């Protein structure tokens, strides 16, 4: 398979005098969203369903080591451990702990800055490059979207699902389960036929399988969250123009109505 360098577009909308102003920035990104869709750094996305803790990414920067592990329950992320040179930040069920202390936002010390970033939460470390950040979105104390932005010219990525789809990235335990998911037909994924226009480098069949696996055997409580996360992340890759006239603009403006996903 041809190697891909996936670039995430962070699109900022500003309503001024009834017009939408669009700015975009790009960086090398590894992301996970929905119930287990993973967009690695250099290849097409894949799907992993596990309730075990898993190594999302490990990387080094000089003498600084960073390792991030994620744990899911019913698909959504319920625990994140961010270990930067053995200084741990833990997000569990919506509660944030830094070095074993419960903290609130914004949080700022000599090493870390954690703050609201629009609808997201963003963490930056002062001992990592300024271009490196960790960002997530909370939905009812669970995380539907989590990603890391970095500059691969400054950091060396060593392991984790951001590198490859390897079962060694799953930290097995006696009370967790890893399941092989088979796509099952569902009309909930029909809108993928339009979203594919925003992902020209990913085959339609791959996108559809990801959507279908994403919602298999997920509780009714969480099914809409994981489905809307799938559509939201793919629509963010649409090409936009400042005149709000491109096909990408149309998808960005209408996808919530067509999918029933609320803001």
From TrEMBL:
Lineage: superkingdom: Eukaryota
Keywords, in A-Z order: Signal
Signal peptide: 1-25
Name used for this protein in its record: VWFD domain-containing protein
